[in-house]
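Input set for joint prediction.
Command: fold jointly, output tokens.
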Amino acid sequence: MTEEEPRLSARETIERLAPALSTGMRVRAVTALLAGLSGAVFVVALWSSEPGPLPGRTHLAFTLLTVFCLAWAGYGGWLLRNRVPLFAAEQVIAAWIALAASTSVTTLMTIVAVQRGTGPGLVLATGALFVAAASVLAVRAHARRAALLRRVRDLTGRKEEA
Amino acid sequence: MISWFVNLIGLPPDCAGEREGEMTDELLVVRAQLGERAALAELVTRWRVPVWTYVRRMLDAERADDVTQEIWLAVVRGLPRLREPGRFAPWLFTIARRSVNDRLRGEYARAREDLTADDVLTEDPVEAMVDRAELVNALSGLPVPEREILVLFYLEDLSVEDCARICQVPVGTVKSRLNRARRMLREHLQERGHRS
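tokens >
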């Protein structure tokens, strides 16, 4: 009986994993999630601050735009959950991007709300919620990465002692 | 305990025990979780053959490569969420078993289950010089539950506790399956004229 071995070499096996390890795919997933969420918040804020009663078609347009943005956010979230989960260093970067995006959108929406004279209260409250969520993600991502780095030091130190 | 089996099957020595002078699996896993692609590649390289060996013992050659690739894909996708890097091997084989089970669902359903939970693990009865090809043939003739436990315990060098966790059965069931698997293996080999 001849020695049986995997048909794929280690290199081929790793190469076939490239889509799941692709940085580009991760960037696309984070972009879809953040752009979708930011877009949805932006559209809803515009919608709610429109002066006077709106015609039915305008309501329909705002609804469709919101659904469209939420669909992109859902797609990005699904990619990050099931297809290209972020490793620790990537989670830190993604969390900071989320924080920057939340802050920018909140600032932009506050300016729009003030210019329209609708009062920035609701926009600021919503924005604060997103900024807080992004901050929590950033803190958790840093803590997770720090814990892993500590573990690397422990294991490396233990090995050197041995 | 496992040397006889590893020798018979012909696995390289590094598949059956600690490797000296190399990074531990846990260190590689943690580095991979941090995002080091080289550590991930090293993990794949290190565990590629053991995973494939397990899959090949459970499935035919045509499906083995595809299923092995599916397993590695699931590993890459699940690795950032692995909370116990020190328990990489049981986690890896849990994924492998799930993938194999997906392909074997029908075969599993037909497998007869009459296990006694309090069976004790007895000394190995198949301690003999046996042609390796015969043993591999005998393995492929065992029912799926017995085959998988034999492969996990002997070929992959996992503990009874890890086997129990991977197969989601009590430790006693693992022991009884091992006993039964060895008995069946012995009978199979005896039928073919070997002495146990």
